[in-house]
């Protein structure tokens, strides 16, 4: 029997790691930007990931290390 070094299992999710300092810098920049907008200007924020393209954890064949 041929072994391909895979196992069938459910992978564990890994939460996103963020940088508190970079987030604080962005908030400061965002607040400064909002305060300089002209009355007829708008600030548009967009999410670049479509909800159906989000990673969904399921079971599958995972290569062993």
Topology:
Blueprint: E1 6-9, H1 20-35, E2 60-63
Antiparallel strand pairs: 1-2
Question: What features would you describe in this structure?
Answer:
The chain has one helix spanning 20-35, and strands at 6-9, 60-63. With 65 residues, the protein is of the alpha+beta class. The radius of gyration is 22 Å and the shape is elongated. The model has no long low-confidence stretch (mean pLDDT 81).
Measured between the Cα atoms of the first and last residue, the distance is 20 Å
In which order are the strands of the major sheet placed?
1-2
> Could you estimate the helical fraction of the residues in percent?
10-25%
Shape: elongated
Poorly predicted residue ranges: none
DSSP helical segment count? 1
Strand residue percentage: 5-15%
Structural class: alpha+beta
From N to C, what is the helix and strand string?
EHE
Query: What kind of sheet is the major sheet?
Result: 2 strands, antiparallel
Features of this protein?
elongated, two-stranded antiparallel ribbon, alpha+beta, 65 residues, 2 strands
Give a brief rundown of this model:
The chain is an alpha+beta fold and 65 residues long. Helices cover 25% and strands 12% of the residues.
């Amino acid at each position: 029997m041929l072994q391909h070094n895979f196992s069938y299992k459910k992978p564990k999710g890994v939460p996103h790691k963020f940088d508190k300092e970079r987030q604080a810098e962005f908030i400061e920049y965002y607040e400064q930007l909002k305060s300089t907008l002209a009355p007829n200007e708008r600030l548009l924020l967009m999410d670049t990931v479509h909800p159906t393209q989000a990673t969904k954890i399921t079971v599958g064949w995972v290569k062993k290390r």
